[in-house]
Amino acid sequence: MTTISDPLADHTYGERYIFATIERKTLATTLRVDWTFTTEMSLQTYLRPFISSGNYYEYKELNAPLTMNYSVYGTEEEHIEKQDDTYVVDPDGSDPAKLFTFDEQVFSTTVLQTNAVFRWEYQPGSIFYLVWQQDRSAETLQ
What we know:
By secondary structure, this protein is mainly β. A hairpin with a 2-residue loop joins strand 9 and strand 10 (126-141). The model has no long low-confidence stretch (mean pLDDT 90). The strands form 2 sheets. Strands 1, 2, 3, 4, 5, 9 and 10 form a 7-stranded antiparallel sheet that branches. The protein has strands at residues 2-5, 15-28, 31-38, 41-62, 70-72, 79-83, 86-90, 100-103, 106-123, 126-141. The chain contains no helices and 10 strands.
């Protein structure tokens, strides 16, 4: 998630590597509809909405390189406090490490892809295609 420089974090070579657990919700589907008007004329449509949002919580620090050992902030000597949309962390309680801050991590993504193909065979072996395609997206990061 983020890295904080701290010369007192000698267990991770002068850096504090901050991670979090994510709660994510996603909705996605694909819809296709084909209409055949005559043997010479058809319309194919495609719609794919995608919506996803996520919230990070249970912030933690890596204890040692090449491991999956973490210290979860707020459970031992580490202290974490939320002030508006910012977290203030004291990584070692009353020991000399400096306080540091990071912003709350929340995201939301919305994507809509659409496609339509109109096919008309106006003479045997001669085909006219009309294609419409659109891709819209919006993303919010906090």
